[in-house]
Design brief:
single chain; 498 residues; alpha/beta; seven-stranded mixed β-sheet; 16 helices
């Protein structure tokens, strides 16, 4: 048995803790905050509101089932899932709203009603997207990104052209659809992948398959129930969690981690997985000579967005609002440019509103409503209360127009979260919310490596390394790094025995 430390209790850290502890290792997870989950933390108010602080879209349910299945469990052993109907709403110009049905047959009919012939096109699009999803989520994302030879797989090579890694997502969508509403609907997921649709590989049409074919789900009680479930699983194998325990230094001896400095103590370990912000780990916790990457390296990387978030409680229920609503009345291209090409606060922002109390009465006091506003912005922007309030008023006015009612006087709880909070709470590089952008030059072996090149027992996991940003990829990241660490431990034991 080896003693292993994990820095951070986000999804990748939780995942790694489960795999390592289940394989008989002594696992200790150190979290700087008071709650489990990293960006997927929850907070509760005295009034009775329960707010998910980060992830709110539960896509790719098969990845979660596969994770729990690795330990002989099902998702339902830890939390209850419900399929949302409709999956989500989209608000277009002139306050025209579109509800996206969860049934594929109804989705086909919806497409056909907007653009004649598009139902057949959607079938063709989804056939290709399913291939990409099955290949991408079944094989590609489980590669550790150490060598190009990982991709010398017959099925991957045979299907390389169909994966469309070198084709533009935007061009791909326009081969099938011409109506602006359908194009906006198909392009919206890439807004959070970290690049403009024109610069995102067509491979990521797999996201359309995940969202439109596999459905949008909701874990009762919120995403906090998911992190609690995984923590419970890790603890069942003996993993120990230490909260309000920031790691302040990684101590090196003879090119190996000897110990961690935590709360004025020096704690010895046989190996460490850093699932906190990669740049922070290297820049603040390691001597410069042991870092994989320089600050210049990080400065040149393309990051996915940060975001402005508001957690809002209303003293009254509101009508004409479903669980998820995307406000796309403005130009996606313009907003994308103001995130990725010419970073600034958006001129005419797109944003998103989640109202989980429509599906779950437990997240708000009786007769009240729980709202979550999210507006993607460029990382590293100036972040002031004045700017936050300016954009809050913009979002509220557009929400009020959609529901046909005023809500400002109904607000009985309000909290904002933006760039400076991501930096303070997660040591997030430039306050990014989602990690590295999924561009071609930041894919697979071109992402920051999961193994320290100079320290034999230090590994990395999470949204700044393979396979990338998002909750399902973070779960997979923890599995990849745990598997590599376990293999290296076995190799070390073997070498010491001969």
């Amino acid at each position: 048995m080896s003693k292993i430390a994990i820095i951070g209790s986000g999804f990748s850290g939780l995942s790694a803790a489960c795999y390592l502890a289940a394989n008989g290792q002594e696992v200790h997870v150190y979290e700087k905050n008071a709650e489990v989950g990293g960006r997927a933390r929850q907070f509760k108010t005295p009034e009775g509101y329960v707010f998910d602080m980060g992830p709110s879209w539960y896509w790719m349910p098969d990845v979660f089932e596969r994770f729990f299945g690795d330990f002989g469990h099902k998702v339902s052993d830890f939390y209850d899932l419900s399929l949302l109907t409709p999956s989500f709403d989209v608000v277009f110009p002139e306050n025209e709203s579109l509800s996206v049905p969860e049934k594929y047959s109804e989705l086909l009919a919806l497409f056909e009603s907007i653009e004649p012939g598009s139902s057949a096109q959607l079938d063709k699009f989804m056939k290709e997207a399913k291939f990409k999803y099955d290949t991408g989520m079944g094989k590609l994302v489980y590669k550790p990104g150490l060598s190009i030879m990982e991709f010398a797989d017959f099925d991957l090579v045979k299907g390389a052209m169909r994966l469309q890694v070198f084709s533009s997502f935007s061009s791909h969508v326009r081969k099938y659809f011409s109506h602006p509403k359908l194009i906006a609907l198909m392009e919206f997921p890439v807004l959070f992948l970290g690049a403009m649709p024109q610069d995102t590989p067509a491979l990521y049409s797999l996201m359309n398959y995940a969202g439109l074919k596999l459905g949008t789900w909701y874990p009762k009680g919120g995403f906090g129930k998911v992190t609690e479930g995984i923590k419970t699983l890790a603890e069942s194998y003996g993993a120990k969690f230490h909260f309000e325990s920031p790691v302040t230094k990684i101590n090196i001896e003879k090119d190996r981690v000897r110990s961690l400095s935590v709360n004025n103590e020096e704690l010895k370990f046989d190996a460490v997985i850093a699932s906190a912000d990669y740049h922070h780990i290297e820049d603040k916790l390691l001597p410069e000579s042991y870092r994989n990457y320089s600050n210049d390296y990080w400065e040149k990387k393309t990051f996915a967005p940060s975001c402005l978030i508001f957690y809002i409680g209303l003293s009254k229920r509101v009508e004409k609002l479903n669980h998820h609503t995307l406000f796309f009345e403005e130009d996606l291209l313009e907003h994308s440019k103001e995130i990725y090409k010419n970073p600034k606060w958006p001129s005419n922002p797109l944003f998103y509103v989640c109202c989980p109390s429509k599906s779950d009465k437990s997240v708000a006091p009786a007769g009240h409503e729980n709202l979550f506003f999210l507006m993607p912005i460029a990382p590293g922007l100036e972040d002031s209360e004045e700017l936050r309030e300016k954009y809050f008023k913009i979002m509220v006015r557009r929400l009020e127009k959609k529901i046909g009612a005023e809500i400002l006087d109904l607000i009985d709880f309000k909290r904002s979260y933006c760039v400076s909070d991501f930096i303070k709470d997660y040591n997030s590089y430039k306050g990014n919310a989602y990690g590295l952008a999924n561009t071609l030059m930041q894919t697979a072996i071109l992402k920051p490596g999961i193994k320290n090149k100079k320290i034999s027992n230090l590994y990395y996991a999470g949204q700044l390394t393979v396979p990338g940003p998002g909750v399902p990829p973070a779960l997979i990241s923890g599995k990849i790094v745990a598997k590599m660490l376990l293999e290296n431990l076995k190799k070390k034991v073997y070498e010491e025995s001969i």
